[in-house]
Amino acid sequence: MVDMKKQLVAGAFLLGIAGLLAYGQSDLPGRSILKGAAVEYLFPEQVTVTAGKLSDVTLHFRIAQGLHINSHAPKDEFLIPTTFSIPDGSGVRLDKATYPAGEEFTLPLDPSTKLGVYTGEFTIEVRIVAAAGNHLVEGKLRYQACDKNACLPPKTIPVAIDVIGK
């Protein structure tokens, strides 16, 4: 009889643990589980610019639902800003990047803390100078995505643009 009680208690315990594990992997509303990319580059895939001249290009991005990323100018120095860069030697030089102002976001656990963030879709206005020719540029967007409870590690995604300098 005592062995049967121990087995019942052990079985109930194992079922409870299994239930907790299943809950941790669920897609409940309000639970941020990242299944895809936190930030996606949308367009343009190709631009044609005048070679050797400053040219403005608008880059479009989308942030996954339920997430936000710090703006380019976050309100606290310990927060990681969103930045765009183009590597040297690509045939295209980044002269300037203009970022949108961040939206104000309040942490649920600390209503006195206000953050500057991007959510949904946002754009970065870049001014580039391209050499003559066709250049497949692999720009980089560095950001840190967070939900209302926690932040993911910082990440850098490629921003591939075919830049044609004529």
* Unreliable runs: 9-33
**What's the name of the CATH homologous superfamily of the largest domain?**
Thiol:disulfide interchange protein DsbD, N-terminal domain
CATH class of the largest domain: Mainly Beta
Percent of residues in helices comes to 10-25%
Categorize the overall geometry: elongated
Q: Compute the number of strand runs.
A: 12
Helix-strand pattern: HEEEEEEEEEEEE
Which strand order does the major sheet show? 1-3-9-6
Distance between the termini: 88 Å
Mean pLDDT level: 84
Strand count, sense and barrel status of the largest sheet are: 4 strands, antiparallel
Q: What is the annotated CATH architecture of the largest domain?
A: Sandwich
Write down the Rg.
23 Å
Report on the architecture of this protein.
With 166 residues, the chain is mainly beta. The protein folds into two domains: 1-29; 32-165, Immunoglobulin-like. 14% of the residues lie in helices and 48% in strands. It contains one helix and twelve strands; from the N terminus they run αββββββββββββ. It has one helix at residues 2-24, and strands at 39-43, 46-49, 54-63, 68-70, 83-85, 92-98, 103-107, 110-118, 121-130, 133-143, 145-146, 155-165. The strands form three sheets. Strands 1-3-9-6 form a four-stranded antiparallel sheet, with no helix packed on it. It has a four-stranded mixed sheet with strand order 2-12-10-5, with no helix packed on it. It has a four-stranded antiparallel sheet with strand order 7-8-4-11, with no helix packed on it. The protein is elongated. Residues 9-33 have low confidence and may be disordered.
